[in-house]
Amino acid sequence: MNDKSKIGVAIIGAGNIGTDLTFKVQRSPLLDMRLLADITADSEGMRRAQESGVQTSADGLDTVLALEDVKIVFDATSASVHAANAPILKEHGKTAIDLTPAAVGPYVVPCVNMTEHLSAPNVNLTTCSGQSTIPIVAAVSRVCRVRYAEVIVTTSSMSSGTGTRRNIDEVTTTTADGLRKIGGAHESKAILILNPADPPITMRNTIYAEVEDAVRDEIVASVKDMVSALQTYVPGYRMTVEPRLDDDLVVCMTEVEGAGDYLPRHAGNLDISTAAAVAVAERFAEALISSESVSA
Fold it and tell me: Which residues does residue 72 pair with via DSSP β-bridges, in sequence order?
C-alpha cells in the first residue's frame, strides 16, 4: 500500500547501485519506494527488491512513466541511457536524480550546493569520486583561492562494476569538472585507481590544492566543518590526514567506509553515491510536501 504521507519514488537500474539505493530509500521518512525498474527480470537486484516487498518491473522506463504518483526518479543505469531517459522524464514532470556521469543537469553535492538547485528537473550527482573529494576542495576554496586541485581516488576493483568501467572516461572528466564548478578550483585533474588488493581496500582519497593567501588554521577549520556536514548522510566518511599547508600546497586525505546495507563495507565509493542520492531526494521531497501543504 502506498504511503500518502511520503513522496513516491522509483529507481531505474537494478545493479549494485540501484539495489543498495533501494535499501536506503526504504528507510527514509520522506520517500516511498514504489518501483524498481530494469530490463532484466531475474537479476539479484530484482530478486532482493521483491523479497523486501518492493514492486519490480522488467519493462524499464515505460512502467515508471505510467505511475503518476511517482514524483522523483533515480536513474542508476549508465551515462548513455540516462542521456536518452532525461528528456522523457522531464516531459512527464518527474524530477530525475542522475547517478551516472551523464552530466545532463546541474552538479549537486548535498553538503556543498543542494539548496541551489531545488527547482531543477534533473540533477547530476557527479561521480562517487566527486562526492568524496569536491567537498574538501570546496571547503578550502571558501577560505582562500584554489588555483589548481588534483585528486587521486583509489577504490577496490571488486566494488567497481561494469557501469564504472564502461564510463571510466566520463567519471574522470565529470569529477574534474565538478572540482571547478562546485569545488571552486580554477583548474583541476582527477585520477581514478582501481586496486585489485584482496582483501579489498576501502575507498581512499588524496586531495591536493595549490592555493593563494592561505591560512592553515582557517583551512583546517573549514575542512572539519565540511566533513561534519558530509557525515550527516555518510557516517562512514572520515578524514585520515588533516589538511597540511606547505608553502602554497594543501594536502588532505580521507576514506569512505560503506554502511553495509547491500554492498560490502569496503564499497564506500558506491555507498557515498547512494547516500548522497537519498539526501538530495529528501530535500526535493520536503519541497514537494511543503508545496502540497500550501496548495491544500
Answer: 9, 95
Tens of pLDDT, residues 239-251: 999 999 999 999 9
CB burial class (10 A; 0-12, 13-18, 19+) of residue 16? buried
CA distances from 105 to 4, 129, 148 (A): 28, 18, 25
CATH number 3.30.360.10 is the correct assignment for the domain at 128-265: yes
Domain boundaries, the chain: 7-125+272-295, 128-265
Q: Are the beta carbons of 218 and 237 closer than 8 angstroms?
A: no
Q: What share of the chain is helix, strand, coil (3-state, %, to 5)?
A: 45, 25, 30
Question: Given 111, 128, 144, 252, which residue is catalytic?
Answer: 128
Residue 128 appears among annotated catalytic residues: yes
Architecture of the 7-125+272-295 domain? 3-Layer(aba) Sandwich (3.40)
Non-local CB neighbours of 149 within 8 Å, separated by 6+ positions: 137, 179, 180, 183, 185, 187, 188, 189, 207, 208, 209, 210
- List the grid coordinates of 208: 591536493
Three-state DSSP at 151 gives strand
pTM: 0.93
**In the prediction, which pLDDT does 2 show?**
59
